[in-house]
Every structure is written in C-alpha cells, then in structure tokens.
Request: fold
Amino acid sequence: MIRTENLCTSYGYVEVLKNVSIEVKTNEIVAIIGANGAGKSTLLRTISGLVKPREGKVYLESQAVSGHPAYRIARSGVSLVPEGRQIFASLSVLDNLMLATNARRGKEARLTIDEDLERVFTLFPVLRERKGQHGGTLSGGQQQMLAIARGLMSRPKVLMLDEPSLGLAPILVDEVMKVIQDLRKQNLAILLVEQNAAAALQIADRGYVLETGRVVLQGGGKELLNNESVKDHYLGSAAFSINQGNPNR
Amino acid sequence: MSPDILLQITLSGITTGAIYAIIALGFIIIFKVSGVINLAQGEFVILGGLAMVTFQASLKWPLPVAFLSSVVVVVALGILIERLAITPARRARGAPLARILIMTIGLSTFIKGGASIIWGKDQYYLPHFTGDKPIFIFGATMLPQHIWILGFTVLIALALALLFSRTSLGKAMLATAENPDAAALMGINVNLIVLVSFALGAGLGAIAGLLVTPITFTGYDRGTMIGLKGFVAASMGGMGSTTWAILGGLALGLAEAFSTLVGFGELKDATSFMILMVILFFMSRGVFARART
Reply:
C-alpha cells in the first residue's frame, strides 16, 4: 500500500533520515520504534508531506506522492494522527471530525460521511456524548481518541499514528492499542510510531527499529519483541516506565 | 452639557467606530489565518473609495454596479498581492513576522504611488448613497449615509458570524488559524485559505472605504491614517476575535468623538495613537504573542 524508498530528510544541515526504506501493506500494522530523536516523527512528517524529503521517494499504491503538498497527500488517502494530538481546541468535537472530511474526494466518499461518523461514535462513545463541546475541554485520553477518530474521518487507506500512547495512563494505553488492533480489519495499512516499544510490538505484525535516522533492524513483531538487543535498548526502559506509571500493576 | 449634544457625539462616535470596526475585521481575519499584520490594509480602504469615484462619478455607472465593481477590483488586488508578495515571503521558512510586516509597509507605499498616478493628488468626494437630508433623532441629527454605515456593519458582522459558525469554508479558516499543519493534514489547502483571507480582508477594507468616502473625502495618501485607526481598533480587541474587533472599533470611535468634547478636537487622531501606545506598552505580548514561522 505505502512504501518509502531511500528516504532522506534534513532540517537545515542536520540529516535526520538516512536512506529509510519501509513498507506497509493493507490489513497490516507496522511499528516504528526507536529512541527520542531517532527520526520517527520526521519519517511520518515526511510521508505526510509536512516536510519535503531531500532525496528518495514515497509510493502510495505504486504512485509517487513525495513532493506533493500535505493537503494533497491527505486527499490521496494518507492520514496522520500527529504527535501531541493537535486537535483544534477552539472548535467543537463534531467540527474537528467534519474538518477531516475535507480530505475526501469523490461523490461516493462524501455520501458515506454520516455512516462513518456513526462508526467512529460507536468506536469512541465518549465523543458522541461530547460532540458539541470544544476540543480543548476534553481530557488527554479523550483528545487522543478524537485525534484517532478525526484521522479515520478522512477515510484513509493508510493511517499513521505518532505516539498515540504519549501521556496516557497505562489503562488508556491498552485501550488505544486495542482500538488500533481492531482497525487492522478495516482495509487499512497502519503505521504506528511509538516510544512505548513493548505496547507497539505486541500488536504489530512487523516492525522497524530506527536509530539516528537509519533502519538498523527489522522483523516480525514477536521476533523483535524477543530480540536481545531490542530488549536491552527499548523494552527495558519502556517496561520500567509502564511500571512507574502504575505501581499497582 | 445638554443631553442633545451627548447623543449627537455618541451617534457620530458610533458611526465612525463602525467604519474602524469593518477595517479592524479585515486586519484580524488576515492576521488570524496567515499570521501577517497587513499594514497595507488602509490602502484597500482608500482604493475602494477611489475606484468608486471612477466608476460612479466619472463613468456614471449606477450605484449598485459601481459598488460591486469597486469591491471586486480591490479584492482582485488583494489576491494579487497575496500571490505575488505575501505567499513567496511566507514560504521562505523561518521568515520572521517582522520581515513580512515591513514588506506590507512597502506595499502600502507602492499602492499609494500607483494611486497617485491614476487619480492624481486631488481630494475626491462621492455623492451620498441616498441623499444628504439629515434625519432628526431626539434632537440629534444623522445623515442617511450614517444609517447605511451602521446597516452594513451589522450585515457584515452577521455574515461573518454565519461564515465561521455554519460553513465548512469558515471552519477551515478557523482550523488554519489555530494550526496550519494540522489543517493541511485534514486535506485543507492552507495556501488557498490564506488567499481567501486576503480577499476577504481586502473586500472588507474596500467596503469601509466606499461607505465612508461620501462623508469624509478621499485621496491617494489617506490610507495610512485610516488603516492605523483600524489597527488600533483591532489591537483594542486583542487582535483575537471578530466580536472584540467590532467592540474595539466602536470604543475607538467613541473615544475620538468624546475627545472633541474635552477640548481635544484638534487632537482627535492623537487620541487613537495614545490608545495604541498604551496598548503596546501594557499589552504588547498579547498583541504580538502569536509569532509564527
């Protein structure tokens, strides 16, 4: 579904991504794990068009989309749920969801808006309860749900999630991960970026490990979960922080 | 002090304030959506009046046609400025707000020069929309043109309220104002929305100019003063919401009108700038806090 080929991205003189080649197929969850500053967010921002790659290509269904502006990439079916949620705080929950339908093209896609709205409200009932409330009045977890729901309202083929567990209580992390797992069945290619490597790899079919802008390791989700070097570098600290967050566990 | 005079001053303050309010709305819409403080806003006001002079007084077009044509001409100019000057400057990553601000001062001088070539250095006036027979209200007088000004202000306020609360274009503008990157991720063409904000800002400026020229005269070099008044009004409203811009405009109009009462008649313009200085001294962070790349 979506594929990057030797993607290189720089901020000024700083090279952030170096020859990153990854692929996500439909009905697949792929996790990108790595430390802070490894380039995970930059990878998603480059695929979504918010940042232009210096070199390399992004292909959506074998069509090159790199170099297109972000709004056009969104319209071709790539949806990014950005880091820190970035919901529109001054607009209502319903407005937030409806704004994402700007990315829908074609008459058929516009006809299913009500149906899809119903679907995300079923997925996140709390959003239905608060649909008239300003986005800024929601709690952190609810804002994350709104951000994911908004990502779905554009009716994407590819859903990219940047740190959806960030700042959430452990019980909410589980809930969000379960939702992401359920979404796999809906003809979506899911690209999940996480610092919480344990949580991400548990639901991922495959994963890539990013280190200072390079893919240093790739493999199946379970395979990476049991990999010694992944355990040492990413799972230990993540597991530690989970325990810290919830001492009763 | 007779109540008649107080009423008279209040009425004239409100009508002047309504004009400032319309100009302030143009400032705010452009600023909120694009982050640009457009100091050429006053030139849009003057060009609206001058275009009307050509269309109505010289070419003898009927009022509604001349009115619409003048707005269209100024909107077209706003679009041209946005595409040729503002967009390239915004695209230069990390271009500080101040650089674009200075550029709009340059644009205002440029437009002034163009206007002086087309219309010369004369002062022009326009006929009132529907005659200039004063209307008496409880001992105070108002001109029909004042009623037009107030009517248009109410109409514009309602139209903008509808735009931002009921239309997907308005919602896209609000989303772009709040977070342009997130808006782009929603499939919103942010550059197009910025263009729309400039078109709207230019159009509002032109309407203000069309409405006010019959009672104040106009000339190629009048834009700076009236534009700055609109900026003061917008700043009084905190450069934030449209409602506050309207209140800011009315407050400024009233402040100017009442300054004549306490013997400040000659210093009417100075009143505005004293208010601006107070705002900049004590609220400068509030006014300019939204620095963007």
Observations:
- Residues 2-77+156-245 of chain A form a domain with the Rossmann fold fold (CATH 3.40.50.300).
- Confidence is low (pLDDT under 50) at residues 238-249 of chain A.
